[in-house]
Amino acid sequence: MAAPTLTVDVPSEIVNEVVATRRDLHVHPELGFEEHRTSAMVAERLGALGFEVHTGIGQTGVVGVLRGPRGGKTIMLRADMDALPIDEENDVPYRSGTPVHMHACGHDGHVAILLGAARIVAARRDEIAGTVCFLFQPAEEGKGGAKAMVADGVLERFGIERAYGLHLASAHPVGQLGFREGVFYASSDSIEITIEGKGGHGASPHLSVDPVYVASQFVVAVQQVVSRQIDPIEPAVVTIGAINGGTTHNVIPSRVRLLGTVRAFDAGVRERMSERIERVLRGVCESSGATYDYEYLWRYPVTSNDVEQTRYVRALAERVAGAEHVADVPKLMGAEDFSFFAERVPACFFSLGSNGGPNSAFPHHHARFDIDESALATGVRMMTALALDAPSHAP
Ligand SMILES: [Zn+2]
Ligand SMILES: [Zn+2]
Fold it and tell me: Which of 86, 90, 203, 315 has the fewest other C-beta atoms within 10 Å?
């Protein structure tokens, strides 16, 4: 059967509004779970469009519900709203107005895109067979805003059956829609370790248990978990990012604290990493007479795209953006809390290239990160197409 025709026009008036919204959000960045101005603006805009608006889900999360006149599936379209604690170094008219707050991941663009789509879809609601939830989530950057919304029962409350989301990507050419079936983003967890020794004089190490020495051994030995204990065809990372202990040259401190991050692309590997890291820690500590406290903080699961949903969204992208703007993209060692939605309902998360030249080529989370705003119209087109088509045509 031929795909039904679907035209998605994004009038220049709406493109201009989306750019203005993105710039306004860029000037007013808010950190995770502090998105009060942003969520108030989202709720007000959705209300003005005639959506049923629900606020305070997962603290600052907002859901706008649009019901079509005919029955069908209930889908969600997700935008994350939070910024990062970075001092912006761009010299642009829409530079961040708050020190050490910056939209350096493109979430300002995600919110603007979804609001732009909401406006177009509101005017075309008669075409929807089903229900569309426009979901604006807090705190993607490390604090698990998606988890908070899921814990608040957002999926059950609105009967959400399918989930879609996009992320701007400075690694890809502007306007390119990138897809990956199956595993897309890694899991991301944290480890927090305290090694307890016995303090003493730096000249008498035999009367102490030196936690600096033990910590040094651990930092080296822990890499064997990846290189010797995990299947080499399964990627994994353990990085110790912070090591703190001691005060001066000639004193052996009594404890050292280490912080690290653990990444994997497979749930089984993720489990094994947590056990094996502790096993190395235990062995190193025992050999020196030190003790330890080990905390493995389970943060973001692997983000995995449902194969059928991904094929569907990719085909939709070819229809509305043209096959020349659609590509397969590699998986990423970064993490995404969209995974909390994708764990529970069939989902597709895809990338939207935002690199239009040197000014938009900086990596995400860089103080000079910026997007080529011509990507925004493509994002609006895709989110609009999903809202109109997915409730009745998604697998
Ligand atoms: Zn980010
Ligand atoms: Zn992000």
Answer: 203
Residue 354 Cα to ligand 1 midpoint, Å, equals 14
> C-alpha angle 16/19/24, rounded to 5°?
125
In the chain, domain spans: 12-184+302-393, 187-300
The number of the ligand nearest the C-alpha atom of 363 reads: 1
Cα angle 328-383-148, degrees, rounded to a multiple of 5: 95
Amino acid identity of residue 130, one-letter, is G
CA of 24 to the centre of ligand 1 (A): 19
**pLDDT at residue 1 greater than cutoff 70:** no
What fold does the segment set 187-300 form as a domain? Alpha-Beta Plaits (3.30.70)
Provide the phi-psi class of 13: left if phi over 0, else alpha when psi is between -120 and 50, else beta: alpha
Which ligand has the minimum distance to the alpha carbon of residue 102? 1
Residues 351-391 pLDDT 10s? 999 999 999 999 999 999 999 999 999 999 999 999 999 99
Distance of alpha carbon 247 from alpha carbon 256, whole angstroms: 11
Ligand nearest to the CA of 369: 1
- As a whole number of Å, the CA-based R_g of the chain is 24
281 sits in which H/E element: helix 267-288
Identify the pLDDT of residue 80: 98
What digits encode the pLDDT tens for the residues 142-201?
A: 999 999 999 999 999 999 999 999 999 999 999 999 999 999 999 999 999 999 999 999
In this chain, the answer to whether the domains covering 12-184+302-393 and 187-300 adopt an identical fold is no
Largest CA distance in the chain: 82
Whether the Cβ atoms of residue 55 and residue 43 lie closer than 8 Å to each other: yes
Tell me, what's the pLDDT at 6?
A: 82
Q: How far is the CA of 124 from the centre of ligand 1 (A)?
A: 32
Tokens 């090591």 appear where? 243
pLDDT for the residue numbered 7: 86
CA of 105 to the centre of ligand 1 (A): 5
Give the type of residue at 320. Answer: V
Give the active site residues: 300, 373
Distance 306 CA to ligand 2 centre (A): 20
Put simply, whether the predicted model's pTM sits higher than 0.70 gets the answer yes
Geometric angle at alpha carbon 309, from 305 and 310, rounded to 5°:
60
**What CATH superfamily classification does 12-184+302-393 receive?**
Zn peptidases (3.40.630.10)
Ligand 1 centre to CA of 106 (Å) is: 8
